[in-house]
Design goal:
With 206 residues, this protein is an alpha+beta fold. It has a single domain (2-203), classed as OB fold (Dihydrolipoamide Acetyltransferase, E2P), CATH 2.40.50. It is 22% helix and 26% strand. It is built from 5 helices and 6 strands; from the N terminus they run H-H-H-E-E-E-H-E-E-H-E. It has helices at residues 2-20, 31-34, 50-54, 119-129, 175-180; strands at 77-89, 95-100, 109-114, 138-139, 146-156, 189-203. The chain has a 5-stranded mixed beta barrel. A hairpin with a 5-residue loop joins strand 1 and strand 2 (95-100).
């Protein structure tokens, strides 16, 4: 009887976790790249800031593949120290965070995400950020911004890449416009580069 009860608990637990951030079957572009497992051995990587990620050049990719990596960049593990500004559940069930170098209202942000394939990371985020995220999202502004450090794969979100030429104005987009892309997080997100998936996360003391 005890064995049967234990099995029932183990089977039920993932269903409860999934219900907190359900997958609606959409937005799974480059899923194979978004769900890569951690490298072994895990590399030791110097910590950087959001400002450093915002300096990365954003290439324009003509042919998008679900499995092909973008250059050597997407073979890198990033280690970022920053402040959480938004925590939400995405339509594809990813845990979506926007992080910045401060809690200031105008602080520029990058996106980092934890896929369903990283349950330990998601549980850790829930513990650090007040529970599972909602679709609407939970903001962390000013003094409420939560300092964390995280490690994960560098990822270029090509689903939000803009065309080289604006179809309405027929003008070539600027480098700044191409770097930011379209419909990529909130207005303060400044680059298509992300950390996705997050492979490790810890509290950080600035």
């Amino acid at each position: 009887m005890k064995t049967a009860i234990l099995i029932a608990v183990l089977v039920a637990t993932p269903r409860i976790a999934a219900a907190q951030c359900p997958d609606n079957g959409a937005d799974h572009g480059r899923h194979a790249v978004k769900t890569r497992s951690a490298p072994s051995p895990f590399p030791s990587v110097d910590a950087i800031e959001v400002a450093d990620v915002l300096k990365f050049l954003v290439p324009h990719v003509g042919t998008i593949s679900d499995t092909a990596l973008v250059g050597t960049e997407e073979r890198q593990i990033l280690h970022v120290r920053a402040f959480v500004r938004l925590f939400k559940c995405e339509a594809d069930a990813d845990y979506h965070l926007e992080i910045a170098d401060s809690g200031a209202a105008n602080a520029r942000r990058i996106i980092v995400e934890a896929s369903e394939t990283e349950p330990a990371v998601r549980s850790r985020l829930e513990a650090m950020l007040g529970g599972a995220p909602s679709k609407k999202g939970r903001p962390f502004d000013g003094a409420k911004a939560v300092p964390i450090e995280l490690w994960g794969w560098r990822f270029l979100d090509l689903d939000h890449q803009s065309a080289l030429v604006d179809s309405k104005t027929h003008r070539r987009r600027t480098m700044a416009q191409l770097k930011k892309g379209h419909a990529h997080g909130s207005a303060r997100v400044g680059t298509l580069w992300e950390v996705h998936p997050i492979l490790r996360v810890e509290p950080w003391t600035p």
